Give the backbone structure.
Amino acid sequence: MILKRCLFAIVIFSGVLADHGYASVLIRDLTKKTHQFSRGLRFASSLIHPEEIQSFERFLSNREKKTLPKHARIVEVGPRDGLQNEETILTPQQISLFIENLERANLPVIESGALVSKKAVPAMAGTVDVLRKLNPKPNTTYPVLIPSLEALREARDLGVKDIAVFTSPSDQFNGRNIRKTTKESLEVIRTILQQAKSGEDPMRVRGYISCVLGCPYEGYMSPERVGSLSLDLLDMGCDEISLGDTIGTGTPESTEDLLCHLFD
């Protein structure tokens, strides 16, 4: 039932790493990497184990196929999630070049930064400058991660049309990440969404849920917890939900269990 209300995505977190820590190498390789993007996706599909395919086929056979999307939409988060934890901090000019190369791959969504504390996430300190340099392409959106009302106001002033908010079903993960419980994070998100959806030009909002298949501090996350949190975000006004296997603990079986719960 949950999935019938909203577009969901199972996220494979990826980013471009700077070889040997040098940003110049990262930038030099960007064009080559984006040209290889489509070929890489085809190659990745060949690596899927036959048992995983059979498991997903069993899942499909028990579901109404008409509820599944006919196309996959790629949401590129490299300029934000791919860079925010790197030791090498790129300049706004380098990040802008990164985004331009991603645009050449005709990606429909490119998450371009985060309006977060410069002290907490130094790699995102240049997001304002990056956004000012954007020359948006038709049919491409450039969401920005928003943690607070102050950040939302700044995003509006910069002409941002799409934003993302984030939380997790794990209190411990939220506590270490944003110093809030899950409940407290939802209250912040509620106020952000109330403002984002008001006025004549409401923003489109993507809701990130981290650790849906396992938490580094609490371990197993039940489908019920993830489903309940998803409904909370949808009820608040999120247009879509992104389900993140943040630490890579998911298996075909646990993913199937989660999706089956969300469909039921």
Q: What stands out?
A: Residues 10-31 have pLDDT under 50 and may be disordered. DSSP finds eleven helices and eight strands in the chain. The beta strands are 7-11, 75-76, 109-110, 113-114, 144-145, 162-167, 204-209, 240-244.
